[in-house]
Design goal:
Length: 344
Amino acid sequence: MLDSMVWIEKEKKLKVLNQRKLPTEIEYLEKNTVDDVFWTIKNMEVRGAPLIGVVAAYGIVIAAKYAKDANDFLKKVELGVEKLKKSRPTAVNLFWALDRMKKKAMEISKSGMSVSEMLDELEKEAKAIHEEDITSNRKIGENFIENGLVKDGDVILTHCNAGALATSKYGTATSPMYLAKEKGWNIKVFADETRPYLQGARLTTFELFQAGIDVTLICDNMAGWVMKNKMIDKIIVGADRIARNGDVANKIGTMSLAVLANRFGIPFYVAAPTSTIDMNCKDGSEIPIEERNPEEITKWFGIQIAPEGINVFNPAFDVTPNELITAIVTEKGVIKVPERDLDL
Ligand code: MRU
């Protein structure tokens, strides 16, 4: 399984796997300034809610390494936090990780440590966020299996990439798939291609296929037909932000899947770490939805496929209302009735 999407090197330079080049090329990029980290998130060289949080946390170490003295240290961190918060608006893990890094920086800036000691402490915090994500993801998979939500022989439909590539390891939606594979179970996965950015076609199929998991690619508009023909047992998706009432923002197309699942009586599960739950959002209407460049729709790998100048609406996420969700599975357990406020 892929597990080296991002790491920090001795001179506090960040290395990231360029997901824009997958699946045809494995390319690692070096990021050495907070601006570099901003663009790698914004341009989706790295993407997926938990991974964005991890990369942003390392981005703060990079921001702080240019501090001239202890006074400048906190200033550099705060500027870095403000800059990175503007990179992408929907995945709350970004804001969660940045707030945690800022809190750590504030604590250590009062401790009388040297800049280099403070930098090491910040790096430890970013690494802790990275490690905790691995543990949480594995636990999410275990919670699916221990609660009988994924069983030997299951056929699972997933959307976008909530896989190892979107996290630090295991993924969220894919975690029970990897654990089922570890157990020698026979499971099958259908992956939606996920227009327009094709995270399903380029990334989910790539990582599951590499891991030896039986995966079949379909276009997004085939999902309903697959459900109607009883070809899948359940749907598992990830999340970018979960509101207090259990409404879930995830990749555009997720809500349509949930409506279809409801129509055909198929369980619809959301897999996410608790860092994806935003207790400050009362419901889905308060979740900011990113709109991306129209060219993601009007062009196909640089080739114009729609009339020049055509109006385009390109929301990157949608919100699935809680009543369409069978359960939300986190590292802490299974929340089966998301109609009530989540209780963390
Ligand atoms: O635009 P992306 O590729 O960052 O969107 C990713 C998703 O929507 C994922 O499903 C979500 O972040 C969960 S990743 C574990």
